[in-house]
Model the fold of this input.
Amino acid sequence: MKKKNDMGDEEGRIEDGTRRLLKSIQQESLSPAEKENIWNRVAESVSLRKERSFSRLWLSLAASVTLLLLTGVGYLVFKKNSGKAMQEAASKIVPDSEDTRLLLADDRTISLQKRNSDLVYQQNGETIQIDSVSTIDQQIAGTGQHFNTLIVPYGKRSTITLLDGTKIWLNSGSKLVYPAQFDADEREVYLEGQAYFSVSHSEEVPFYVHTKNMKVQVFGTEFDISAYDDDKQVSAVLASGSIELTVNQQSLFKSVKRKITPGTRAIFTPSSATLETGQVNVEEFVSWKDGYLLLKNERLSELFKKLSRYYKADISLQDNELGKKTFSGSFTLQEDIHQTLDIISASNSLHYQEKERRYIFEKNAIKP
Done:
């Protein structure tokens, strides 16, 4: 308030001085040109004073806004630290093995040779049971960020049960990065690929799933996330419970949060920064974890992408127009790829040629 009063007193003194000067001018024998020149100088002086006062006010306001922005950005960066660190850890790992691999925080690598491997964390995370037949010990580091990574190549699947009881089904071509030991106040993991989560509920310790373009806050629930690098979209399908999605996290003012209800699919398209939601049949999107596919009007181009990952095979179409054909129905994902491809061929009047794990689909020849 003192500064405001000082500013008002200063302006008052200027106005009083101006009035006295004008009165003096009226009493003097000055030419009209001289009077006009004096008046212009007085007006410039008053205007300059006002500009300086406005500049001080503007600078104060700008400083406040800048401080607010810096605080917001700092908070945003801080909140992303764990997810960003896990993303960087995932980016350094190349899936160059045909086996599923578990990379431990102590730099050991454990190869899992089964097509469908299973890991269960026990005894405060110090013991990991593998495929119910063997165990390995893990040294829990004290402080700092130490991550384990499960890498599932094409043609393989895996399940992992974390120490808190959360169970995760990982589909072919996926990576899961997670702390060797969860913090006391929150649980965070990072996913590339596709996974189905059955998260153990905890009011005190929230669970977060990070992907490159989406963060999911979990409230004790079951859901599927598909976030492959070579897909144009990332999606989440909620089976039960509740989740909150955050997209556009890199932008302070354009980030979007949205809660979804069971039976909802959320699709985020990074190229257009759009988030769309709609009701779906959940089974169509999560059946893969149980070894079968339930499909409704699935384009062959998308179906063959899924099967190529699942079987680690090159499945393509001779004519891109054939990719617009659709398939509806269900089939078990057999050990033998030929049984699956034969079902698709028969339902769409197609046939395929095979050459060293390459399968090229084309139209059946029309007989005369």
